[in-house]
């Protein structure tokens, strides 16, 4: 038997192909019928031919669906349950999983730390932009959800697989606290939901930096202050806004922000030549903008191998970064993939209680057959695409 799936074929080419059915391979597996599966900025790093995806790789790591089948050792999940599946799959019991550090699971990938679906270099797990998905360690990896497929929470819940938890994780890495001032570089899904998460946690002011109109507008709708890098240096602009907001006497040196989040990663645009990439652009801006003793969270991806390295970066992922500035200011810089399981059920409960509505940032929906066009539009930032969700 075959099912339809989105397959990476070549640089900037994906196709919808028949692939063998997902099936139970271990007694602790489940097979999930996918109802929604989002496209992520991480998929674009592969689509753009930068992070070594092999032709034939089934893409996708942001699924929502209904359990179809479970193995004989699965105890808490049964067919018919509606579930979100976190991007980074994990065993749930190893030394790091037991501490909630699931993105670094010691067992999910034989040749490394942590694993993900449909992701070059992150294990053998087939992607989720497909009709069916095999989910290992189903008791740990299926997040139970109320309601029915296609109900009013479908877009909110699909963002529990990655985007909302990653935005939230960024605020935890940056240690955002009530009253903080925060700048988020990048107003893609991850940056927007990091800004939204910071506001939910009581940040006093949140600035969203990007250079795409639709995304800046969305940042504003979510309650952040948009800062367009095409209009000038965003660091100068935010300092100006902070000064205008009124800095208390004696605190004039704190005219930056307390916390900075990099939600762009290595494919950052060079602000002075927006048609070029400059992988260390955001890190350089963050170092200038962060206040003394503040924090920077790097949630955008920086790969260990870039097949087409850009100025300021080497093929093995080394960047020129202002180490001395961070040291002098006493800033902590933290990195990382999302430890999904730490946040998923808390964020689910914020959604079901009506406190959070992350689905507001979903702009496009399409059948699986429409994937090639949605990838193209998303990559080109055409037609106002911020988040596209496929429905297998
Ligand atoms: N750490 C994790 O677990 C995790 C999970 C999901 C995604 N990610 C990563 O997060 C990043 C963002 O994902 P996304 O889905 O929002 O991607 P996206 O491609 O939709 O958004 C990136 C945004 O950054 C903006 N940008 C580019 N250069 C900039 C600059 N110099 N200053 C400010 N903004 C700039 C772009 O205009 C774009 O809107 C990607 O690198 C993705 O791989 C990490
Ligand atoms: Zn993602
Ligand atoms: Zn583990």
Automatic annotation (TrEMBL):
<dbReference type="InterPro" id="IPR011032">
    <property type="entry name" value="GroES-like_sf"/>
</dbReference>
<keyword id="KW-0479">Metal-binding</keyword>
<dbReference type="Pfam" id="PF00107">
    <property type="entry name" value="ADH_zinc_N"/>
</dbReference>
<keyword id="KW-0520">NAD</keyword>
<feature type="domain" description="Alcohol dehydrogenase-like N-terminal">
    <location>
        <begin position="27"/>
        <end position="146"/>
    </location>
</feature>
<dbReference type="InterPro" id="IPR013149">
    <property type="entry name" value="ADH-like_C"/>
</dbReference>
<protein>
    <submittedName>
        <fullName>Aldehyde dehydrogenase</fullName>
    </submittedName>
</protein>
<feature type="domain" description="Alcohol dehydrogenase-like C-terminal">
    <location>
        <begin position="190"/>
        <end position="269"/>
    </location>
</feature>
<keyword id="KW-0862">Zinc</keyword>
<dbReference type="InterPro" id="IPR036291">
    <property type="entry name" value="NAD(P)-bd_dom_sf"/>
</dbReference>
<dbReference type="GO" id="GO:0046872">
    <property type="term" value="F:metal ion binding"/>
</dbReference>
<dbReference type="InterPro" id="IPR013154">
    <property type="entry name" value="ADH-like_N"/>
</dbReference>
<comment type="similarity">
    <text>Belongs to the zinc-containing alcohol dehydrogenase family.</text>
</comment>
<dbReference type="Pfam" id="PF08240">
    <property type="entry name" value="ADH_N"/>
</dbReference>
């Amino acid at each position: 038997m075959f099912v339809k799936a989105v397959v990476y074929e070549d640089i900037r080419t994906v196709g919808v192909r028949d692939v063998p059915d997902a099936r139970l391979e271990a007694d602790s597996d489940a097979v999930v019928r996918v109802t929604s599966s989002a496209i992520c900025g991480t998929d674009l790093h592969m689509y753009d031919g930068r992070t070594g995806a092999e032709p034939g790789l089934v893409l996708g790591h942001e699924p929502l669906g209904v359990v179809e089948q479970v193995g004989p050792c699965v105890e808490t999940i049964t067919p018919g349950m509606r579930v979100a599946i976190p991007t980074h799959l994990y065993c749930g019991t190893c030394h790091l999983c037991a501490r909630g550090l699931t993105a670094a699971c010691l067992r999910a990938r034989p040749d490394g730390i942590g694993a993900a679906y449909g992701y070059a270099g992150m294990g053998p797990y087939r992607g989720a932009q497909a009709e069916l998905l095999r989910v290992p360690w189903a008791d740990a990896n299926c997040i139970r959800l109320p309601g029915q497929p296609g109900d009013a929470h479908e877009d909110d819940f699909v963002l529990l697989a990655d985007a909302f938890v990653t935005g939230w994780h960024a605020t935890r890495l940056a240690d955002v606290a009530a009253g903080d001032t925060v700048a988020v570089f990048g107003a893609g899904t991850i940056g927007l939901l990091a800004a939204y998460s910071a506001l939910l946690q009581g940040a006093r002011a949140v600035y969203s930096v990007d250079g795409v109109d639709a995304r800046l507008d969305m940042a504003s709708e979510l309650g952040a202050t948009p800062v367009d890098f095409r209009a000038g240096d965003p660091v100068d602009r935010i300092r100006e806004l902070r000064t205008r907001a009124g800095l208390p006497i004696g605190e004039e040196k704190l005219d930056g922000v307390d916390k900075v989040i990099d939600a762009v990663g290595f494919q950052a645009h060079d602000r002075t030549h927006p048609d070029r990439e400059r992988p260390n652009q955001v890190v350089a801006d963050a170092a200038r903008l962060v206040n003394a003793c503040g924090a920077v969270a790097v949630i955008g991806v920086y790969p260990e191998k870039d097949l087409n390295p850009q100025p300021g970066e080497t093929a093995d992922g080394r960047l020129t970064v202002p180490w001395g500035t961070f040291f002098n200011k006493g800033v902590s810089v933290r990195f990382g993939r999302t430890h999904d399981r730490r946040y998923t059920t808390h964020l689910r409960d914020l959604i079901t209680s009506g406190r959070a509505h992350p689905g507001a940032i979903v702009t496009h929906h399409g059948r699986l057959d429409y994937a090639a066009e949605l990838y193209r539009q998303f990559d080109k930032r055409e037609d106002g695409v911020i988040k596209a969700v496929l429905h297998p």
